[in-house]
Design goal:
This protein is of the alpha/beta class. The chain folds into two domains: 226 residues, D-Maltodextrin-Binding Protein, domain 2 (3-Layer(aba) Sandwich); 93 residues, D-Maltodextrin-Binding Protein, domain 2 (3-Layer(aba) Sandwich), CATH 3.40.190. The protein has 14 helices and ten strands. The strands form two sheets. Strands 2-1-3-10-4 form a five-stranded mixed beta sheet. It has a five-stranded mixed beta sheet with strand order 7-6-8-5-9, covered by helices on one side. Strand 6, helix 6 and strand 7 form a beta-alpha-beta unit.
Length: 334
């Protein structure tokens, strides 16, 4: 488990900034999570439940986003101090293309949690789909926005032109065979499709990271203004959150109990086998197996550049912030 020393109130409040706001941290730090309660956020739940945030001098309130307001919307609207978001979504929000009416968000990264992509396409094997070239002309669904960049590059690499329709929050259209293929997360929809009675033998899977595509996913983000005033709080949150994930890895059954309790309290249907599958895959994505190019919580500069280049090529962003601006807490930018 990561070493985590408690911070005194004096330590938390002492920062190298001036002005009345710098003298006192917020009473409650509001952390917006991307979606409904599930194992995707297990380490954060454990950091709160086991007092790791409290030991770090933090009083954290968790806010779950929904279909109407994303976690970044909550951050942008000053309804959250910190938000979780996928790396690509954060970059798109920080650097919209010149043709967009969207206003660039002031975003900086506190920590990169999920180090690799879990994004994939699943296809019906009995339709003759064995390899990428078999997707040509097929009707498929995938998520829009930043997700689409990986898929667009994948299709271009294999010179295929599927008929794409937007995918929303369900894989029911795929299960009803309304499309030949659909987007999925390895830790989520892939397992849900199996739970719906579809055995692996009936599917062909294309995991984007196996093709050198896909982006790192969940990270912790805030605004540069908030970080300037509360840098030590941000560092404490980073350490405590990673410690929460270490605790989740060491105590998986206790963690699943907490995840299921969070889901039940929110009225979200959940089952232990699915949440266990998700927890195992998320843990591997965050803490790795010891061979990861970066330590937990850090963003690889080369991966950042590759992600930016892919998003630019897809026309999804304009001029992105440089690595040091985007990741001010990274030791390489100090």
């Amino acid at each position: 488990m990561l070493a985590l020393g408690p911070l005194s109130a004096a330590q938390v409040q002492t920062e190298a900034h001036s002005g009345p706001l710098a003298a006192r941290p917020p009473d409650v730090l509001r952390l917006a999570l991307q979606w409904s309660p599930q194992s995707q956020f297990a380490g954060i739940y454990m950091a709160q439940r086991k007092g790791l945030y409290a030991d770090a001098g933090l009083r954290v309130e968790l806010i779950h986003a929904n279909a109407e307001r994303s976690s970044l919307d909550l951050l942008h609207g000053d309804d959250a101090d910190v938000a979780t978001a996928f790396l690509a979504d954060a970059i798109v929000a920080a650097a919209p293309p010149a043709t967009s009416q969207a206003e660039a968000m002031d975003l900086v990264q506190i920590a990169q949690l999920v180090q690799h992509s879990n994004l994939m396409l699943l296809a019906w094997k009995d339709l003759g789909i064995q390899g990428p070239e078999d997707l040509d002309g097929q009707m498929l669904s995938h998520w829009q926005g930043a997700f689409s960049a990986s898929f667009d590059v994948f299709f271009a690499a294999y010179d295929v032109e599927p008929v794409v329709i937007p995918q929303y929050y369900s894989v029911n259209l795929f299960l009803k065979r309304g499309v030949a293929a659909c987007a999925a997360m390895q830790y989520n929809e892939y397992h849900r499709i199996w739970q719906a009675g579809v055995d692996d033998e009936r599917l062909t899977g294309f995991l984007m990271r196996d093709y050198g595509l896909g982006f790192p996913e969940d990270g912790l983000y805030t605004t540069s203004d908030w970080l300037d005033r509360h840098g030590e709080l941000a560092r404490a949150m980073r350490r405590a959150t990673l410690a929460g994930w270490e605790y989740a890895r060491a105590h998986p059954e206790e963690t699943l109990d907490v995840v299921l309790a969070e889901a039940a309290a929110a009225g979200i249907p959940a089952n232990r086998p699915h949440e266990r599958w998700m927890l195992e895959h998320i843990l591997a994505s965050i803490l790795g197996t010891g061979n990861a190019p970066e330590p937990p919580g850090a963003l690889n500069p080369t991966v950042y550049t590759q992600t930016v280049d892919t998003l630019v090529a897809a026309g999804l962003i304009g001029l992105a912030p440089d690595f040091s601006t985007f990741t001010p807490l990274d030791a390489r930018t100090q």
